[in-house]
Amino acid sequence: MSYFDNIRTFVRVYELGSMSAAGRDLRISPAVTSSRISQLEERLGVRLFQRTTRSLSPTEQGKSFYRGATEILEAVESAEAQIVNITENLKGSLYVAAPLGVGRRLIAPQVPGFLKNYPEVSVRLRLSDRKVDLTTEGLDLAFFLGQPEDSNLRIRKIADVERVLCASPDYIARRGMPDSGSALVAEGHECLSLRFPGATEFQWRLTTPDGPKRFRVPGRYESDDGDVLTDWALAGHGVAMKPVFEIAEHLRTGALVPVAEKTPPEPIQMACLFTHRRRQDPKTRLFMEFMVDRIAATI
Fold it and tell me: Which residue ranges does the record assign to the HTH lysR-type domain (predicted)?
């Protein structure tokens, strides 16, 4: 078993915080994962992780080694990228994250076309509406809606995505048709909120005659899954703010209808994030360009 494989396994265990999760990610058994870490610890003569039956955490030596280990992997990836640039023979795995709606409707359908062009590349698509960390999660790039918080990452803008406030005809029949953000608040409408762990407040930023304004909307329903909000809206439980591309079919059939049209939501940026190092990887660059072209033509 190669020392390099042991280092790669250590990095994934460190980033994912679990032997089993790292094993699944690398497609190796938990026994092989544990064996590789043990071999690495034996070679280095230190303990890299503190293990209990319920948790795993890096030691100080493990934290120090992680910094050097990632530099080793980056150096190898850089060397491979130079060879790929010469041979144009793309190979290896791409780790990609995207919000659920974006991933299911825009990214996933295009992946087979990309892999058909590059048969030695594999794509590992992680879908979640939570915020992701490219560095700690070992991602090559992440698609997102909104504004990123980390200014150290590079951004490739794809498009400004139109959004709409919407509800089902059944909900409107019961609660009335709100004409604005102010009406949503004053009339106590159920507003379906996309919210993540750790969020301290939730507001909707809407366009008013006086410019953009934030509304602290009421509502008892919240989820970190955007598709759950769509399902609740379809079932008549409240008003949702959704990207138009996610609910276009429901708008077309009338299952959902626009509300509060005097104060529509501001468009939201769709873009992809990557680190400077990842941008240098040819397969990352080509995957990004492939997706950007197709998504921009879709929405």
Answer: 1-59
